[in-house]
Design goal:
This protein is an all-alpha fold. The chain contains 8 helices and no strands. The chain is elongated. It starts with 11 loop residues before the first helix and ends with a helix.
């Protein structure tokens, strides 16, 4: 007979957040922490409900007290994210030819496909680096690069830089929060997450302005 469990979260996303954070904190002084960081950053590269940022920030906070190694935190997170970003890219490459056959020349979808391919050719580095800081954006960008057959060498170069930058920023956000608020770990974690949200919002704002200026310039040329 089914029964209610008051301790069980109602939403899958909430369950995943609590589960990964508790797992990280339970092994915070163990080498297994770095395996957890690799796993969570790997999965978060293609599964939106996996919360890598809070886990990395927590690891960074504890690095301020010497319980974790900030260099290893960044390295493990970078490795996991880099491997994870290869998954949607490979999926895109495998599906790309099949999808391209369904996009007849002159159609709106084919035009959008060709436009994105040109954008990546000229601004691939900017797109891959900035979208790495935006949870939904990173999935769309990495999958799309595969769909348009973006060169694997350039992809690896830009994604390696993007994941290293994102990992360092996320971990150091927690680390500096831990340095400033050494006596209050919860406050340090909250500050770290707040800074992450602010920077992510700022990056998205810049991208939005760039899109508007590009659209305005395109309209001017057409007129």
């Amino acid at each position: 007979m089914p029964h209610d469990n008051p301790s069980a979260p109602d939403a899958q996303g909430q369950f995943l957040v609590i589960d990964w954070i508790e797992l990280a904190e339970s092994v915070i002084t163990s080498p297994w922490l770095y395996a957890v960081l690799i796993a969570v950053s790997f999965l978060d590269s293609f599964l939106p409900l996996i919360p890598s940022e809070p886990v990395v920030i927590i690891a960074g906070v504890y690095a301020a007290t010497g319980e974790t190694d900030i260099v290893l935190v960044i390295a493990a997170t970078t490795l996991g994210a880099l491997l994870g970003d290869l998954v949607p890219y490979v999926v895109g490459r495998l599906l790309g030819v099949r999808i391209l056959k369904r996009l007849p020349p002159g159609s709106k979808r084919r035009t959008a496909h060709d436009w994105f391919a040109r954008e990546l050719d000229t601004r691939g580095g900017f797109i891959l680096v900035t979208t790495r800081f935006i949870p939904v954006g990173r999935y769309l960008a990495t999958l799309s690069t595969g769909l348009v057959a973006y060169p694997v060498g350039k992809y690896l170069l830009f994604v390696a830089f993007a994941t290293a930058t994102w990992s360092a920023y996320t971990a150091l956000t927690g680390y500096f929060g831990g340095v400033v608020f050494q006596e209050n770990t919860l406050l340090a974690i909250a500050v770290g997450m707040g800074l992450a949200v602010v920077v992510t919002g700022a990056i998205e704002g810049v991208r939005h302005l760039r899109r508007r200026r590009t659209a305005a310039a395109a309209d001017t040329v057409v007129d």
